[in-house]
User: Which sequence fits this backbone?
């Protein structure tokens, strides 16, 4: 067995282990500023909780869990994220994906064929990709908020048995940054490859390019001590991806990565690339 193939045999850590208990959310409308504060606070607490667990401090982790509950828990975070993606705040990131896929979807006009999409961390069944007639979307999330979204940990999702069980596109929109462990982020990116298909649509000659839609807060890439645009490119290329599209706003970075080649084993550790007191500690580790 080749070294490359053994990379996928390792059982990755579950995302569910990194998430704290959920509590009932307060559905009161939040302002844009309050929404951002909820999201940022939740991420900070998750990071502190992960560090406490890593150091074996169960007491501290329990205290942080209590604080997360006081702040509304995962449901409050999801409510804030959903509000941030609402139309009145211009936030549906899947509109970018649909725009970028327009040329690839053109051969599907006047046919019954659809590209299969796996949306990880789905919040809505009515976003742009879900409403596109040429996309067959499977939506999963650890804490499903509505019918049509399967409660599923991607890191525990059974591997596809055949090409028909795989997807032409995987969406990781504001998901990778939620994983508190840098090594867990690397495992998630590697695992995506196992769910992408390079085969033509069944019953047709329409070819596809397996793609990963990645959305991150721009600060994860532009203001991190441990991750830069070049390092992200190196990591993705080592996994077999080639950058097809990229867009950056004041808050987010959008990327469409095409999977072109096999995984080339190359470790990337957490190392200072862009030091500075005001920078954050976001990192991606590949083992």
Assistant:
């Amino acid at each position: 067995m080749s070294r490359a193939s053994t990379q996928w045999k390792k059982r990755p850590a579950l995302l569910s282990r990194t998430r704290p208990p959920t509590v009932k959310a307060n559905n009161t409308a939040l302002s844009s500023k309050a929404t951002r504060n909820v999201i940022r606070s939740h991420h900070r607490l998750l990071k502190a909780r992960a560090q406490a667990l890593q150091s074996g401090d169960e007491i501290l982790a329990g205290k942080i869990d209590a604080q997360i509950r006081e702040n509304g828990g995962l449901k409050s975070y999801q409510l804030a994220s959903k509000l941030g993606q609402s139309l009145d705040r211009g936030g549906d990131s899947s509109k970018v994906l649909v725009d970028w896929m327009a040329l690839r979807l053109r051969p599907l006009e006047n046919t019954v064929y659809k590209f299969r999409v796996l949306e990880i961390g789905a919040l809505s069944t009515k976003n742009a990709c879900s409403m596109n007639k040429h996309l067959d979307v499977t939506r999963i999330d650890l804490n499903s908020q509505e019918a049509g979204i399967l409660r599923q940990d991607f890191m525990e999702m059974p591997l596809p048995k055949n090409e028909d069980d795989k997807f032409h596109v995987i969406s990781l929109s504001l998901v990778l940054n939620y994983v508190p462990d840098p090594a867990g982020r690397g495992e998630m990116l590697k695992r995506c490859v196992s769910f992408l298909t390079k085969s033509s649509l069944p019953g047709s000659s329409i070819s596809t390019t397996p793609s990963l839609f990645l959305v991150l807060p721009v600060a994860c890439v532009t203001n991190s001590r441990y991750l830069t645009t070049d390092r992200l490119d190196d990591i993705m290329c080592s996994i077999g991806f080639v950058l097809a599209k990229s867009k950056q706003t004041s808050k987010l970075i959008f990327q469409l990565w095409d999977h072109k080649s096999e995984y080339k084993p190359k470790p990337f550790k957490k190392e200072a690339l862009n030091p500075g007191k005001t920078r954050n500690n976001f990192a991606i580790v590949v083992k």
The radius of gyration is 19 Å. The CA atoms of residues 88 and 211 lie 29 Å apart.
